[in-house]
Design a protein that fits this description.
Number of domains: 1
Subcellular location: Cell membrane
Family: Belongs to the drug/metabolite transporter (DMT) superfamily. Small multidrug resistance (SMR) (TC 2.A.7.1) family.
Mean pLDDT: 92
Radius of gyration: 15 Å
Structural class: mainly alpha
Number of strands: 0
Protein name: Multidrug efflux SMR transporter
Helix content: over 70%
Strand content: under 5%
Keywords: Cell membrane, Membrane, Transmembrane, Transmembrane helix, Transport
Pfam families: Multi_Drug_Res
Length: 110
């Protein structure tokens, strides 16, 4: 369970960093730029810990699937970026893939 919490922390940190990346305006704004560096540092550190027991492909699929949804939600709320139907369908397919991997795959290595 601890491994999955660590992966979730990595995903949230990456979402914060990606969202701050837009707000940093090409690293011209200090606070968002600091959030980018700290967020990505935290994200990759936590991901590296999670990869001790989760297969890299599985971890990355979960990271990508949840990350895409979270970043899109942040884009809608903070930046008023509304995804079109094709984007929503594609995101749904990604989430479906993550569900299939978790239900039918072998996510824990070693």
């Amino acid at each position: 369970m601890k491994t999955w919490v660590t992966l979730l922390i990595a995903i949230v940190a990456e979402t914060v960093a990606t969202s701050a990346l837009k707000a940093s305006n090409g690293f011209t704004k200090l606070l968002p730029s600091v959030l980018v560096v700290v967020g990505y540092g935290t994200a990759f550190y936590c991901l590296s810990i999670a990869l001790r027991t989760i297969q890299v492909g599985t971890a990355y699929a979960i990271w990508s699937g949840i990350g895409i949804i979270l970043v899109t939600l942040v884009g809608v709320v903070l930046y008023k970026q509304v995804p079109d139907v094709a984007t929503l369908i594609g995101m749904g397919l990604i989430v479906a893939g993550v569900i299939v991997i978790n239900l039918f795959g072998k996510p824990v290595g070693h």
